[in-house]
Write a structure and sequence with these properties.
alpha+beta; seven-stranded mixed beta sheet; two-stranded antiparallel sheet; 5 helices; 9 strands; 22% strand
C-alpha cells in the first residue's frame, strides 16, 4: 500500500513540476510581434520596431473602475524615479495599450494621461486602434496580448474581465518578467528589475 502512495505522490509531483516548467518556458519565449497602432496624438506607432530600449508594457481600458487606473498611477510614480536616475526615455520606455480601442480614442487616451499628470513627450506611448480600421487593429491588440499571455474579454456590459499583469520586455521585445497590477504592483521591485537589466 505504501508503494502505491509513493508512486501516486511521485506522479502528482512530476505533473506539477511539468506544468510549472511549461509556463516558465512559455513565458521565457514570449516576444511582442511588430505591429502598427495609433498613439495618443493620432499618429501611427510601430510597436516592436525599437531595439534600443527596455519596455514596460501595460494593458488598460480607460473605463476600468479600479485596477487599471491604480496601476497607471503607480507606474507614473515609477516613471519619476526612473527620470531621477536619468534612464527614462533613453534606456526604457513605457507602452500602455488599450484593450478597448472602440471607446479609447487618441483624444480619450490623451485625457487619461492628463488625469495622471503624464507628459506627452514620446517616452510613454498610449496605443489604440485606428478608427477607420478598428476591427483590424482590435485583432492586432489581441495578438500582442496573446504573445504575453494577457487575456481579456468584454462580457457585454463594457466592463472588461482581464488578466492582472504588466510586462517588462527587453530590447529585442522578448519577455523578461511580469508584475501584478493594481495594489499589488510593487514599484520598488519593478524599479530594481529594470536597473538590474540595464546595468
Amino acid at each position: 500500500m505504501k508503494k502505491i502512495y509513493l508512486i501516486c505522490s511521485l506522479a502528482v509531483f512530476l505533473g506539477i513540476a511539468a506544468g510549472i516548467s511549461f509556463f516558465l518556458i512559455r513565458d521565457a519565449n514570449a516576444t511582442i510581434p511588430t505591429t502598427t497602432l495609433v498613439n495618443q496624438t493620432g499618429d501611427t506607432f510601430k510597436l516592436g520596431q525599437d531595439h534600443t530600449k527596455l519596455k514596460l508594457v501595460e494593458f488598460i481600458y480607460t473605463h476600468c473602475p479600479d485596477i487599471c487606473p491604480t496601476t497607471t498611477q503607480k507606474i507614473s510614480l515609477l516613471e519619476k524615479d526612473l527620470e531621477k536616475k536619468g534612464i527614462f526615455g533613453n534606456k526604457i520606455e513605457f507602452i500602455t495599450i488599450s484593450i478597448d480601442p472602440y471607446r479609447d480614442t487618441p483624444e480619450v487616451l490623451k485625457g487619461y494621461m492628463k488625469g495622471f499628470g503624464i507628459n506627452n513627450d514620446g517616452n510613454w506611448m498610449f496605443l489604440t486602434g485606428d478608427k477607420q480600421n478598428i476591427k483590424r487593429d482590435q485583432q492586432k491588440i489581441q495578438e500582442i496580448a496573446n504573445s504575453l499571455q494577457f487575456q481579456y474579454k468584454d462580457p457585454g456590459n463594457g466592463q472588461f474581465i482581464h488578466s492582472t499583469y504588466t510586462y517588462l520586455v527587453d530590447k529585442n521585445n522578448k519577455f523578461i518578467a511580469k508584475f501584478p497590477m493594481g495594489n499589488d504592483f510593487n514599484k520598488q521591485e519593478v524599479y530594481s528589475k529594470i536597473l538590474d537589466k540595464i546595468n
